[in-house]
Fold this sequence. Notes:
alpha/beta, three-stranded antiparallel beta sheet, 15% strand
Amino acid sequence: KNYRPQDMATRAAFQRMPDDVWAWYLYRRGRCRAAEPNAAHHALAGLERARGNRFLLVTQNVDGLHIRAGNSLARTYQIHGNIDFMRCSRECLPGPIELPLEVPLHWDKGRLLGDAERALLRCPSCGAPTRPHVLWFDESYDEPNFRFHSSLAAASEAELLVVVGTTGMTSLPMHMGQTGAQDGTPVIVVNPEPNPFSELVEQTGRGAFVSGTAGNWVPALAERLES
């Protein structure tokens, strides 16, 4: 209650008050865990099963719902991270680590970390404190943690790019849309309101803008793409 989310979700805040930042993320994780995948999540998981290596999901969501719905880690680029994972603050390991099972799934708002939680939130390799595996506001995309180059390459190689429920205010998704459009890839945009991606469709004349929610349109689109 004493900080704005934009202030907490930063490397600078973590360096000043790691216990407070971890406690906030554990509380957020509990809220995410209380949610269930919806029809759009399940439809995308089914589309991956049907299309295999011809399907790739790139998500900005950190809630882990795509993985819980059945999408694989191998075919899901979580470009803003996943709140169920941590990583070594010294980067001694090459990738994220799933939070230990002993870390409570539900964390009381305002509760601080104790010695037991601090011990759990240490790197299993070097013993250094870990950090939440999320992209913070004062950080940049990279390849090892957030699949920056792989996402751009996938957009360039795709036969079809489907963009669902994003404002286009973060740089990597927008670069992906621009890359696909420049390469002549059709783009289908699903969003309640027009956005920068729908403007790309209008400019190129390749693809379509569908006004509506993911829950309304993604299952129908996935069914068509499965065939």
